[in-house]
Structures are given as C-alpha cells and as structure tokens.
Design brief:
This protein has about 475 residues and is α+β, with helices and mostly antiparallel strands. The chain has 15 helices and 12 strands.
Length: about 475
C-alpha cells in the first residue's frame, strides 16, 4: 500500500527508527504546508501538536541532515526520469535579528550593524523547463564573531579555510548523486561567487562527472595568453543572436533582450597565491561563452555575461544551450524568495541554532513543494490534479471556488486546479499577468486547507493527515 499523504512519500526513508518520531515529522511537514506564513503554534493548530513539534525540534536524533537526506532520496527518483538536470547552487542570508535570544547565531554582515543570523548554501535540481525536482545539498552555518574581518586576508588562506569551500562541498555531493543516475547529465550552475579556480579543477577530474557552468567575475582579471579574457573574447566572431527573457529584479521590470553570442576554448590558470603554495597546480580547459546585449533604448544595465563551462561548446547551438542553462539559475532565487516570504522562516523562534536548523529543513521541503506545484501547473497543465491532490482536497477546492455543495464528477486538470488556488491567493489572470507565481499559490493554499477541513466534516469524509486514523 502506497503512502497516504505527500509527507510520508517525501520523508518515508528518514533514518528515524522510532515510528513516533517519523510520524511527528510527517505531521509537522503537513501542518507547515497547509499553513505557510503561520507561526509554529498557529500552523500546528493545537497545544498538544505544538508541544509535539517543539519536542521534535529539540530531539538530538533529529538533524537537518536526517530530514533532508530522506527528501534527497525521493528527489533522486524524480531525477532519474530526466536526461538533463540543472543544479544551481547559491548562498542566502537568514536574518534572525528580530529574536537574537537564539543561542548560536553569528554576524551576517561585514558592516558593524550587529545583525545576527545564519548563512544557507543550498543546491537544487531543476528540469531544463524550470520545474524544481528537489534539494540535493544544504550547508547551514553561523559565522564565528571572533573571525570577523578575516576576509581582508582571504587571499593568504587555502580554500579549505574559506567560506568558498562550500561550492566544492556541494559539487562533491552532486558527484555522488551523478553516480546513482548514470543516464542523466548534471549541470552544476553558479553565479560570479562560484568563479573559483579550485571548483573548475574539481569539475575537470572526472570526465563522466557533472558539468560545471559559472558566470565569470570580471574583477578577477582572468587572462588568456597574457590578454584580458574580456578583450580576447571581444575579438571572437559573433556566431549568432539569441532572444532571452530577463526576469524582474527589484525595481527592474521583466523584459526580453537580444544578445550576441561568441565562444572560444580557453585555459584557466591557477591564481598566483595558489602557485606560491603549490607549483604543481595545472591549468584547466574550459569553454567561454560571451553574451552581450546590443544597445537597447531605455536599458540602464545591458546584459554582459561571460559564461565558463566544462561542457564543450563547438557551435552556435551549443553556445545557445549554455545560455539557456545559465538562465535556469534564476529558479533558485525564486525558491529562496518562497522560503523566506512564503514560509516566513525568519519568524521561527527557537532556543538554539540546532533546533532552528531542523525547523528550517522542514520549511525548505515545504517551499520546494509549493514551487513544484506552481511549475507542474505551468509545464504539465494537462495532467489530472489527482497526481497532486487527494479526492477530498480537489472536491473541496471546486466547491469552495464555485460556491456549490456538489463537486464535479470529473477532477479538474492540474493546470485548472493551480489557477483556482492562485485566484484564491489574489491572482487576477489579466492579459499581461502571465502564469501565477509561488506567492499567489502559498496564499491560496491556506484557504484550500481550511475549505478541505470543513468539506470533510460536512460530508463525513476521512481527510488523510499524519497521526490521524481513518474512520
């Protein structure tokens, strides 16, 4: 018999050998998913369940690694269904300054503003179309207040002693997953912070390992045969033009941009500081794709990307594919916004960092599921909604939206269900609105849960939920 609810499906392999602990994990995850944006007590819904959640977070057998490893195993099964999987990594700051009584927090800014919190470096798997398949790695840490200012001498330190090591650790985790999915090509993607020689060296070690795609940092002043990399690439032939979508960022509106593409094979030399410590460091062969937006009227910040990849680029089609892959990196930023604003993780108040990390790991999977639902409705709208919702849930949704006591005989598609939920969350569906995003979904899901509970009561149906027994 299969799992009765999504939490059991996602966390069923958790290394928690006490069945009560595993059931509590299912319950907390389901409650957090049903009521995103709520605090712990509000989401749990009763004093007994709230106390159970707090006991779960402080149990020494429960860690972020235990929770996310189970989800990772479910993610691997989803990955095996795809030929190419994009794996962006990124670091985000979690500010907990509003309740600094949590023991173990550290400084999060370089300025003297005394802000406290944690840093989270996570690695997610996406399809090429942008559907998130799950979390493959997460590193969470608090900076040591005593080491503040270390960045001024970072060039003197080996990478093992720098925060930059997080990129290599995550890459190695992806290497392990790659071995379990030999039919899938993994492309690890990083922004300019990931422009690290040691990371490219790591990626060049195994021919059958994950490919690496990183946007180069111009200030590093990389050279090709004594010539500045940017100057070298400007001299290369334009192989074609490409139209790309630039998503909205802050006050900058989303737009379409036409860019010129150039590419060339180059070699990355080790930094001087590394050469001084280890003269055997080899140069690394990569392919550079130079992406430049032609002068566009009213554009303050035209596109100029230098993409470096261990995946070969031999044609315009190859170069175009690398640009499309890099554009997929924005998915992890949408995920972080969902995690912070949708799950409101900064409002979680727990006594220690260890407990906060366990709570965060549950929120991370909840944020993934909200994003997953959003993209499944967009990419596979024809699927029946029963792939995601129980009968009692889709029937309650239809009755609530259409204000009728009788649900339709046939379930709606997942695309129709997502639009209904988004509408409950404030999505208007106007001509220029595009597809609904995660924000309208997490708002709408709160109403769906309340409607489902009431529908189950009125129709005397069993609503599957962890730690509840059937009729």
């Amino acid at each position: 018999e299969g799992p009765e609810h999504w939490a059991e499906e996602e966390f069923g392999t958790a290394r928690l050998y006490d069945l009560r602990l595993k059931q509590r994990l299912y319950t907390v995850a389901q409650d957090f998913y049903n009521c995103p944006q709520s605090n712990i007590a509000e989401a749990c819904g009763s004093k007994a369940k709230t106390m159970g959640a707090y006991r779960f977070f402080r149990n020494p057998k429960v860690t972020m690694e235990v929770v996310l490893t189970a989800h990772k195993e479910a993610t691997i099964e989803r990955i095996k269904q795809h030929q190419v999987v994009l794996v962006p990594q990124d670091t985000t700051v979690l500010n907990y300054s509003t309740h600094p009584m949590t023991a173990g927090l550290g400084p999060i800014n370089n300025q003297d503003d005394h802000a406290l919190g944690l840093l989270l470096h996570d690695t997610l798997a996406f399809t090429e179309e942008g559907t998130p398949l799950g979390i493959l790695d997460a590193q969470c840490w608090a900076r040591d207040p005593e080491e503040k200012g270390k960045r001024y001498r970072r060039k003197e330190l080996p990478i093992e002693q720098k925060e930059s090591m997080r990129w290599l650790r995550s890459f190695r985790k992806v290497v392990e997953v790659q071995k379990l999915c030999p039919e899938t090509m993994f492309v690890v993607i990083g922004d300019r912070e990931a422009d690290i020689y040691e990371l490219f060296l790591e990626a060049s070690k195994e021919a059958d390992g994950p490919k690496l795609l990183v946007r180069a940092e111009k200030s590093r002043r990389r050279k090709v045969e004594q010539e500045f990399l940017w100057d070298f690439m400007k001299r290369q032939e334009v192989v074609g033009r490409l139209k790309i979508h630039i998503p909205r960022r802050g006050s900058q509106q989303a737009r379409e941009a036409w860019v010129d593409l150039r590419f060339a094979e180059v070699r990355l030399n080790p930094p001087k500081s590394l050469v001084l410590r280890d003269e055997t460091s080899p140069s690394v062969r990569v392919w550079a794709v130079y992406v430049v937006e032609r002068a566009a009227k009213g554009v303050d910040f035209p596109i100029e990307w230098m993409l470096l990849s261990t995946a070969e680029v031999r044609s315009f089609e190859d170069a175009k594919k690398r640009v499309e892959w890099y554009s997929g990196r924005w998915g992890i930023e949408v995920y972080h916004r969902t995690l912070k604003s949708g799950c409101r993780i900064k409002d979680r108040q727990l006594e220690t960092v260890d407990r906060l990390e366990v709570c965060l790991s549950v929120d991370m999977v909840v944020a993934w599921r909200i994003y997953y639902l959003t993209m499944i409705g967009r990419e596979r709208p024809e699927l029946p909604c029963t792939v995601f919702f129980k009968d009692v849930e889709w029937k309650a949704l239809c009755c609530y939206v259409y204000q009728t006591p009788l649900p339709p005989e046939k379930p709606p598609t997942i695309g129709q269900a997502v639009l209904m939920i988004a509408t409950l969350g404030g999505y208007l569906g106007r001509k220029g609105d595009g597809f609904p995003g995660t924000k309208s979904l997490w708002r709408g899901l709160i109403q769906v849960y309340a409607a489902t509970k009431m529908y189950a009561i009125l129709t005397q149906q069993y609503y599957p939920h962890p730690m509840q027994s059937g009729p």
